[in-house]
């Protein structure tokens, strides 16, 4: 998305590093046309004390010998804004400037303080409607500080993407993507869902429910029952606390609204598959509940099944490294995305 034109660093494959509230994740993937992407290495380290982030990152970089690699990273949903608007009727070379003012009211900061990028949603011209575009906006000072912080730890930043497009990279590997698929990633306190078809992002939605809410509800249910939480052979309501059911129902509502919008606004066939990204620990009953409530085919994603992994990954490692893996799936030999912003040196 935001590309930094620097001399390529030595080392095969794409190296991605992502900072999150939970810790530091790194993934190295070799992309070869016509072959399954090869995950060469994947690492995660938790950061318990935020004051130690810089020292932990420096140690992480040295431990995995990332100083001489071109690094791809991504901004998470809390770091950037993604807004859908009607495409302004201007020349293509004026598009990035033209979208700034329509999104100003949707930002928590002045658009003059933002770095803005834009990419189109495919297939809109054929529908006879004004095409829609996605505008991503990042506060310029925040981006400068993030780049500076990473560079201080001896990292050479090649490109910075956004979480929604990183999710698209993962969704493109799924067999369901050929017909259209919803991919749901639950982090600790929030979630992100993308709707893609044939490797293209059509819709992204933030969800105010994370796996912590489901886990707390699970634990409280087990405590109240005086026995381990288990949904095997039970009806949907049995074995679940009211809080867990409410959290799941919030997810169901957001998924259903998104599917309805996708089908009506993009004139696409209905999506009948929901794939849940790996969770750091098992939350029993979630797949069964979502499948029954939505009437969809729902499954939990195992990244070992869609990547050629040098070493099998645990579900916990998959969950913590999900965005790093998605960022490393970027096809660096292909042309950049529509609306990519070449920035020499640091963000301007």
Number of helices: 9
Classified by CATH, the class of the largest domain is: Alpha Beta
Order of H and E elements: EEEEHEEHEEHEHEEEHHEHEEHHE
Beta-strand content:
25-35%
| CATH architectural type of the largest domain | 2-Layer Sandwich
Number of strands: 16
Overall pLDDT score: 86
The chain-level structural class is alpha/beta
Largest sheet entry: 8 strands, mixed
Coarse morphology = globular
Low-confidence stretches: 217-236, 333-348
Number of separate domains: 2
Gyration radius (Cα, Å) is 20 Å
Using the coordinates shown, work out and report the CATH topology of the largest domain.
Nucleotidyltransferase, domain 5
Short description:
With 348 residues, the chain is of the alpha/beta class. It contains nine helices and 16 strands. It has two domains: 1-174 and 304-348, 2-Layer Sandwich (Nucleotidyltransferase, domain 5), CATH 3.30.420; 175-300, ATPase, nucleotide binding domain (Nucleotidyltransferase, domain 5), CATH 3.30.420.
